[in-house]
Amino acid sequence: MSLRSVVLAAATFAAYAVDAHIIMQSPVPFSADKVDSAPLPGKAAWPCKKDLGYTVTKMNPMAVGEQQKVSFKGTAVHGGGSCQLSVTTDTEPTENSVWKVIQSVEGGCPGTDGTTVDLPFTLPDSIPNGKATFAWTWFAKLSGGPEMYMNCAPIEVTGGASDTSKFEALPDMLVANLPGVTDCKQESSTVLKIPNPGDVLTGSAISDAKPPTGSCGASGSSPQPSGGAGAPASSAAGGSPSAAPSSAGGNDGMYTPPAGAGATSAAATSAAAVPTSPAGGAASSAPAVSSAAATGGAGGVFAPGASSAAPAASTQTTLVTVTGTPSTPSKTTAAASKPTATAPAAGTGASGAAPTSAPAAGGSSGTCTTDGAVVCNGPTQFGLCNNGSVVWQAVAAGTTCSNGTIQKRGYRGRIVRRNGLVGHVHKH
């Protein structure tokens, strides 16, 4: 091969690598002309790929209580995965910076079908006024190995807190898949279950989400429910605190949160809420489960400042409303904001079908030619081409793989918000 051919091939690969993964496009990151889509390589770049510098390309103003969004550039979403949105009050973060989580996503982030979807969020009033740093972190489901992606942006907060007392009570950001910083890591080809997702958890909430493994340090335990220390929200219903029931509308990772989706506010009841039948729809039987892992589960290493001690006890609730038949948007909204039944008293138990497991990830593999492309293995299996190889995964129920696309008859999604807010499941 001639020198010219080698140079051209290297240039082509470099151009592909820039778009091979995903980068945060908005808010505008630090050193926007240098930011790349590669995962964090290790301690030298932690956090924020600090080796690229903290040049403020554009200051991003953010008002507390107003909806913001994270938008992305790139196409290789690697089967989606789990993301977190976090803030530190440091304007040039270091390895000692304390990152506080404002929103977490389990499954479908930043997309699952080869395209990205904007991620809406709102800054809580616990964020202090003034300049700070915003971070988007991503743990991909399908990749060459456990990886952690991180892009950071300068922000200026208005309408927020005058001190840091409430800010310090927020959960700490999960740090995993980062050699030299932690040996805590994600299990290969799985959606990472975030041990302490915070008050706002969105995404597909699929049943095969798994916690990180290894010497993961702090447990990242969530605030305790009022029913007693260590009692997960699902204990009254007898459900597993880390499993999302497939009968409650989980779609095994094929759901991408629609733009503008958010948790709906409504009156929440006790920790074991019973699904009802709003808007005349037939309700599916499903136990209510906690939207965060139980405190005794495997945890993760969190950014400095994390503590294994739980915050002061507070009521932790999850109300899941399941609509089994199609309904108009107005009926769905009404059902989410005004449930037709309340939960039984804690400890009485909730009846319903037991959760069933999601389709298991395929263990076989094959070869492919176009990195980042969806590859079909018959109508029942798919995979993403990664460096010439592909690991087959079962398609979700109700979908088929054909000509490099996943064809869906519809989607089911679940958005969960805790501490008095409502999650909902709907079907189109």
TrEMBL record:
Keyword Signal belongs to the record: yes
Keyword terms of this UniProt record: Signal
Tree of life domain: Eukaryota
Sequence segments annotated as region (Disordered): 188-263, 320-364
Low complexity: bias regions: 214-249
Signal peptide: 1-20
PANTHER family recorded: LYTIC POLYSACCHARIDE MONOOXYGENASE (PTHR36182:SF2), PROTEIN, PUTATIVE (AFU_ORTHOLOGUE AFUA_6G10930)-RELATED (PTHR36182)
Protein name: Lytic polysaccharide monooxygenase
Protein's organism: Epicoccum nigrum (Soil fungus)
